[in-house]
Amino acid sequence: MILAGCDGDRTWRLQDYVARGGYSALKKIVADKVAQDAIIAELKTSVLRGRGGAGFPTGLKWSFMPRSFPGDKYLACNSDEGEPGTFKDRDILRYNPHSVIEGMAIAAYAMGAARGYNYIHGEIFEVYARFEEALAEAREAGLIGQNILGSDFSFELFAHHGYGAYICGEETALLESIEGKKGQPRFKPPFPASYGLYGKPTTINNTETFASVPFIMNMGGEAFLNLGKPNNGGMKLFSVSGHVNRPGNYEIPLGTPFAELLEMAGGMRGGRKIKAVIPGGSSSPVVPGSTMMDCTMDYDSISKAGSMLGSGAVIVMDETTCMVKALERLSYFYFEESCGQCTPCREGTGWLYRVVHRIEHGLGRPDDLDLLNSVTTNIMGRTICALGDAASMPVQSFVKHFGSEFEYHIENKKCLVPPEVQYAGSQIYVSPSC
Amino acid sequence: MLEIEIDGKQVQVNDGSTVIEAAAIAGSYIPHFCYHKKLSIAASCRMCLVQVEKAPKPLPACATPVTNGMKVWTHSELAVKAQKGVMEFLLINHPLDCPICDQGGECQLQDLAVGYGSAASRYQEEKRVVFNKNLGSLVSTDMTRCINCTRCVRFTAEIAGEMELGQAFRGEHAEIMPFIEKTVDSELSGNIIDLCPVGALTSKPFRFAARTWELSRRKSVSPHDSLGANLIVQTKHELVKRVLPLENEDVNECWLSDKDRFSYEGLASEQRLTSPMIRHGGQWKQVDWQAALEFVATGLRGIARDHGAETLGALASPHSTVEELYLLQRLVRGLGCDNVDFRLRQADFRADGKRAGAPWLGMPVAGVKDLTRLLVVGSFLRKDAPLLAQRVRQAAKKGLHVSAIGPNAEEWLLPVRNRALVAPSAMVATLAQVVVALAKEKDAEVSVALLGKLPEAVGDDALAIAQSLASGRKVAVWLGNLAAQHERASELQMLAQEIARLTDGCFGFIGDAANSVGGYLAAAVPGERGLNAAAMIEQPRKAYVLMNLEPDLDVANPAATMAALDAAQLVVALSSFDSPALRKVADVLLPVAPFTETSGTFVNCEGRVQSFTAVAKPLGEVRPGWKVLRVLGNLLALEGFGQGDSEAVRAEALAGDVAAALDNGLEGVVVSSATGPAGVLERVTDVPIYFADPLVRRALSLQKARDAAPPAARMAPATLAALGLCAGDRVRVAQGGTGVELVVQEDEGLAAGCVRVATAHPSTAALGAMSGDLSVERA
Amino acid sequence: MLSQESLQQIDREIAKYPPDQKQSAAMAALRIAQVEKGWLPNELIEFVARYLGMAPIAAFEVASFYNMYDLEPVGRHKITVCTNLPCALSGGVHAADYIKHKLGIDFNETTPDGKFTLKEGECMGACGDAPVLLVNNHHMCSWMTTEKIDQMLAELDKK
């Protein structure tokens, strides 16, 4: 849907998007002076759920914005995609940036927002530069800016880049960052809908969420919902990475069996056996491969399997993977990315990493797994934002499902996966001899 | 109002309250570190997690708004488990150096660890080490102890008005620091010591001086500015070791200025005067009190007899207590003389005999928060009245519009919406323009007394100020120290009065000292026959009694004052400190107690009477000033010196309704809209914060602060260009025949044609009056 | 302290935000300053802070929080390799090892000739392209096989 008809780097420009039917939704809304409520109602019908990870119903979120507010209201698009495994927004922005611009313009219309910012992950600076070009095209064509398409609807949209901080993907940290500060999340309440950017009402949605809006407006909420399954409306982009033959983004209806997605991604690399899958980005709990093979790719099914669909980032690991080493790297990531604001996360993420690190390096202690469980329990639910939970869930799930591997490390001071095959599946581009 | 049940107890709280505020009302203590009632909510330490009905997770009490019918448990199993979990995280990287930590015994972390910590650590890794930072001469750092509560960061940004500290880096590497190589220079910096819940920020002067449990704690009142901040003075073996704020929401809230906090170091100065001394044939000799007082009594009586009582004169510092000021004027008047004054820096005395009462702020200090418009005339607000400025800063965040008139525009760290930057000689005319424009805005007539005295043309700045004032709901006009010391201060007062009338607002004086109001109430001002402070110098006396002042530093015209004193037959100085200037001019030095060694009273700018008792025994032969004066009165066989204690003196001095005695009303001063001659350089004089009184001058750590830099000759870039001077040049600044050499400093916040030269410093003591012409030449 | 061109770029960034929110341009301004000067010495951070009317320590907070800002000098070409789990599963760690081997330096080191600095990166949001690396923060290279790494280093070496 979003990426349908896009031909890589060649067809991202305004004319290409218009040729694909782009901006027709915005034009119709502006020309027909469609009621704001009608747009939000259509979204509610579509059951579009936030594509950034939390899965909050988008229509409901939009309805939280105060109607009559003196002064500016803001929109922010969260393109700060840095959750390990997630790389869908980058493709949307570079192959179909105008779908995001149109989606944001419709959102601005529906919520009466005067200004918007698209916060783009710093590491994809070339994509930021391209988005700036797309904005210039749209502005030139009167699709954003003052008096859009000759109407009295105005919406200014700009791009803001990150510069290397995962936490800015958290929506209030993102707002702080747009304000030119450190990206430290705010305590909620107040929620952004009442106190957001510069203290003004603000709605923040993920890139894919905004990009879906024009399609919903065109096809109707009902049709979008029917693409997926009840309570799990529409198409969704899945970023498949790890030990598969064709890593990449796959846009499929929600509810598609995991096995089919794996097949689309070319199946397991080297035909090896699947060991584990992280189904919704690195912070979602890991699921054993066998369980995963019985799941369908939607919010409810993955939740039943004890994990989360999250951002739709599917990390596939084969039998050559050492789960302790894998967790060590993820724990290091959360330790490194903790913003340092609140105590449990600032102090706890380092503690978790150090314990996993010592287990991996043969220095584990008999009660380390209990310690990991206890420390994660003390972090979870006690922090300002979800990073504390995000750092804890991998630890808990890795220990839960692969505890024996951790115990083997502690007792034998070495890995259960024999060194000669360890990460055989990972050495694809680089010769192992170097 | 909202109903909330906390730990089974029902309480009612105001709308918008948080759970931690409600718990305080309910009497439930919730452990916390980052929360502070005067700072923004960070909700980051997570220590205040509590159980809230229907909430799946524990919630931070500091940031959770109360909803009607909410039920909270602060010590349930869920809450305590969360609190203990947080405590463990706080302790894993905290050093176990409590035995050598200055915070020991008054450490929030230590106290809470007793209740919430466990005996042994489960954290086996190496603890984090954070390098210390140099924050200046007042605040010492042990950053490894920091728990990143960010109270200090929020204080600098929100209360002090300038973000001098930040939390740099992130995650476990996050650390509190100033910008590289910068110190914390705020005049309120010491408050971060109080705010720090651990031993990361401690007092540098107090470092390793005593353990908190060894200290006696006594209440007192700051003698330094017109606010009268409430103090807790801590002593050990009769020596003051530390000064902390005594919370008083109506006065200093929970803050102190650094001057209030660290000036105590001056008490231990080597220059403390510890025994009476008499000069005999050019030699100073220690004598006992009996001999000294008899010498004084004989001397004063002799001069009064030989030359007439009117040849006596008494000058008292406005930092003296009410009791001292009262007995001094009684003494002088008992001798048949009316020459007594405490307004040592005042230049215009035309209001004497025409004012309705004692000049004061004209409003309560706590009322600043309700103001919507404020015009500050002639003030170095931030340095002259740091905590008053702080209140203005907070009010400005809530919509107070501040305007200013004067020759100075240094950074106040609060938004000044409109400003007329004019030379001192143009201040009256500018304020008069504001009156004209304001009357027009309000469609009102000006008072008869001003008819025909006001200018016709109104400048843009004055118009903007008038428009701002006209749109206010609650308006105040404050006359700062520079206005009160102005050559035409009474005209400024007349005009301020008119603005207050036109805006239905109030007006008053900020005041330059602890007893700027109290001196009037104690009647330490001349009556109709008497000479004021300036006249006593212009018409030299045969004998002077000096009370708590340094004649080269604490007066309007140091050069003339020193000359007059030098020529007198007898100069009696009651002082806590010895100084070369005193030795040069005085014949007798009587060691009187500083505020910590005597009981006394200050009446602050809002008319609040604040009495205090001694916190330590007088040093050596030092005696409380009021007792010295009483005995002297007895020796002179004067009436009315039988008071048994200082309370009796106060009762006499402040007999009657103090509030009723406060009145800024003024009638009969002729206002002129004339301005000074063009083309001359005018002196602008400030009294630098750390040179403002004898005690603070001797406080060593404050003397190392940035605000204690020696005076320079400050000029606006245009003035410098006109004179062909550059910053850094050495110049000779001369005034009325005397001159000093100074370094030129560029000051963009100064009116053109002005040279700002500080007084109260030895390097400028040879200069004359605080305003008027001066010349600047390359040295 | 900065070129006219850089200042113009910063002014364009400032214009994106409401007039009373100049600080919002801090991240972009620091980026522009770093591109011109190669890294962010304290004086430069202070300059940017003053240009935007913010406290220097507030600008330092930003510069030290986001890890693409360099508070220390780096080589002419800074190479940042992602080694996070999804990349590691597809050769990210091995690519980094290969570059270390080729340049003879470890992470956070600079070659003696000052040409290359190697950094370990966190997720760049391009896991499908693993191994991925950034050259001088702004240019992303995908599917970095040993051959492509050789080719890239050779080209950069010439610049």
Question: What's the layout of helices and strands?
Answer:
The complex is a heterotrimer of chains A (434), B (779) and C (159).
Chain A: H1 14-19, H2 24-32, H3 36-46, H4 58-63, E1 74-79, H5 88-95, H6 97-111, E2 115-120, H7 125-140, E3 156-161, H8 171-178, E4 202-206, H9 207-219, H10 221-227, E5 235-242, E6 248-253, E7 256-257, H11 258-264, E8 274-278, E9 287-288, H12 289-292, E10 296-297, H13 299-304, E11 313-318, H14 323-337, H15 343-360, H16 368-379, H17 387-412
Helix pairs in contact in A: 2-6, 3-6, 3-10, 5-6, 6-9, 9-10, 14-15, 14-17, 15-16, 15-17, 16-17
Chain B: E1 2-6, E2 9-13, H1 19-26, E3 49-52, E4 59-60, E5 70-73, H2 77-92, H3 108-116, E6 139-141, H4 151-159, E7 165-168, E8 175-178, H5 191-195, E9 201-203, E10 216-221, E11 230-236, E12 239-245, H6 258-262, E13 277-280, E14 283-286, H7 289-307, E15 312-316, H8 322-334, E16 340-341, E17 373-377, H9 381-384, H10 386-397, E18 401-406, E19 416-421, H11 427-442, H12 460-470, E20 475-479, H13 481-484, H14 489-503, E21 506-509, H15 518-521, H16 533-538, E22 543-547, H17 558-567, E23 570-575, H18 580-585, E24 588-591, E25 600-603, E26 609-612, H19 625-635, H20 646-653, H21 658-661, E27 681-684, H22 694-697, H23 700-703, E28 713-715, H24 717-723, E29 730-735, E30 738-746, E31 754-756, E32 773-778
Chain C: H1 4-14, H2 26-37, H3 42-52, H4 56-65, E1 77-82, H5 85-88, H6 92-103, E2 109-110, E3 116-121, E4 133-135, E5 139-141, H7 146-158
Parallel strand pairs in C: 1-3
Antiparallel strand pairs in C: 1-4, 2-3, 4-5
